Amino acid sequence: MNTPAPHAPDTPRDLVGIGIGPFNLSLAALADPLTGLDAVFYDQRPAFHWHAGLLIDGARIQVPFLADLVTLADPASPWSFLNHLRARERLFPFYFAERFHIQRAEYDAYCRWVADNLPSLHFHHQVDAVRWNPERDLFEVDYTHLDADGEAEALGRTHTCNVVLGIGTEPHVPDPLRPLADAPGVPVLHAADYLAHRDALLAAGHVTVIGTGQSGAEIFLDLLRHRPPGREKLHWLGRTEAFAPMEYSKLGLEHFTPDYTRYFHALTEPVRDRLVAAQWQLHKGIDADTAAAIHDELYRRTLDGGWPDTVLTPGVHVRTAGRVATTRIELHLEHAQQNTRSRLTTDAVVLATGYRERPLDRILAGLDPYMRRDSRERPRVDDRFRLLLDSSVTGNVYVQNAETHTHGVGAPDLGLAAWRSATILNDLTGRRPYPLPHRTAFTTFGLEQGKPQIPSARHYRELTPLVDGI
Fold first, then answer.
1. 3 state SS of 184
2. How far apart (Å, rounded) are the C-alpha atoms in residues 95 and 217?
3. Strand partners, 269
4. Where does residue 152 rank: exposed (0-12), middle (13-18), buried (19+ CB within 10 A)?
5. Helix, strand, or coil here: 129?
6. Using only C-alpha atoms, what is the Rg of the chain?
7. How many CA atoms lie within 13 A of 202 on its CB side?
8. What is the pLDDT at residue 236?
9. 209: which strand partners?
């Protein structure tokens, strides 16, 4: 673990990371032992938290614990999940628990342990703009240092040879429900805020959960378990045509390998767009254990001969929504297969409607003249996770979890975090501090599939030494 040397204000950094979610946290952890690499990461939040509103008791992440921040690139890293357990004297309890998939709360605690101990992370720093300075051949990053209350305290600027964006995703609220969700005091909230409002939802007369993915299933199950039998008063609705299981077969999971990512990136743009839309069940279905737990709970409530007061209906979307009197919400529903419409009156709505990539345009407005875009005006991203920029820009802007349109459904998957971070660091340094496997799947996804290339250092200044002994 490095202790950063004092940084001279006029000395350019090698890398500035914007956003400290799991993906840039992975990059920071793998960058930490690379001596000679000056990297710093900024985030406007006061500390690291991962989906705090969805850390429901018992909810698990959908990837094995080996898909931590570092292990699949460097199993010997001091920032591994197993070393976190060792530091907390929890290795033996974990060993006997025999848990391959850990709880979300435990993953969050692990990431906070890493974030609390990495010296390169700077919270309370809001990045305002990124520009290219052609006179210095450097990026300028403007930021605001926030105080403990989140108010502006001081302005700052740093120069850097490279930038990596890890600004993550934001909750998606469907347009028909946005006016209600934005209105103060109206009980229409996104799943991201579920735990903060859980007590009020449990006390509400009738609750509707919209969204048939994993978050919707977990919230419905949690509400169901804590509402009285026979008086559950729960609706669960979603656009998908079924409460579909997530694809979790071993060969199906090979869509989340570097092999498939490289294959997907080489496809044409129209084919990529068609595939992303068609592959929703790879990452938007329901975990089989969660679906089974819901059925078990519903079945348990029929033992006395009655049926739970619940309605589970897929294939439904909300056309419009509004207030009834002053306290209730009316949803105007449409069933796609039946081509029928109806109304549902409810006391509260939870929107388990997923997340969308945060647009890069605001923070990268200063780079817009240099950016190359596809036919739908999305940034083009090469196979090393670099934005395609004008050749006059000699530095690089890397992206993390902003490249689903170019790299496929694995972009937001935690299992590819360490591999992508290692790929970026290999490319940035021009060396191979993290040797990566040439083959990762038994499936050959195309008739012609090129072999992965070892990153070149042509356009980067060399950083030496990188790792002791390399």
1. coil
2. 29
3. none
4. exposed
5. strand
6. 24
7. 15
8. 98
9. 236, 350
Instruction: Please give the full DSSP string across 427-453, using - where no structure is assigned.
Output: HHHSS-SS---S---S---SSS-PPPP
Percentage of residues in the chain having pLDDT higher than 70: 93
N-to-C CA span, the chain: 17
Phi, psi of 193, rounded to the nearest 5 degrees: -110, 20
- Owner of token pair 């207030």: 323
What are the backbone dihedrals phi and psi of residue 67, each rounded to the nearest 5 degrees, phi first? -85, 50
What residue type is 324 in one-letter code? V
Provide the pLDDT for residue 3. 53
Helix then strand then coil, % of the chain, to nearest 5: 30, 25, 50
- Residue 128's closest CA among 143, 111, 146? 143
Q: Is residue 71 pLDDT above 70, yes or no?
A: yes
Calculate ∠ Cα 327-330-333, nearest 5°. Answer: 160
DSSP state of 92: H
Tracing tokens 């909300």 back to the chain, one arrives at 318
**Cis previous bond, 412, omega within 30:** no
C-beta separation of 370 from 184 below 8 A:
no
Q: Considering only 73-82, 191-200, 338-347, 447-456, which range has the smallest mean pLDDT?
A: 447-456
Are 410 and 403 within 8 A, CB to CB? no
pTM, two decimals, is 0.92
The secondary structure of 371-411 as a DSSP string is B-B-TTSPBPB-TTSBB-B-TT--SEEEESS--HHHH-TTT
pLDDT value for 457? 39
DSSP β-bridge partners for residue 145: 125, 154
Assess contact for 180 and 186: CB atoms under 8 A. yes
Residue 449 has pLDDT above 90, yes or no: no
Check pLDDT > 70 for residue 391.
Answer: yes
Is 187 in contact with 202 (CB distance < 8 Å)? no
Quickly list DSSP for 195-258.
Answer: GGGHHHHHHSS-EEEE--SHHHHHHHHHHHHTS-TT---EEEE-SSSS-PBP---TTGGGGGSH
**347 neighbors 324 (Cβ within 8 angstroms):** no
> What would the pLDDT profile of 207-228 be if each residue is shown by its tens digit?
999 999 999 999 999 999 999 9
Tell me how far apart the alpha carbons of residues 209 and 198 are, in angstroms, rounded to a whole number: 13
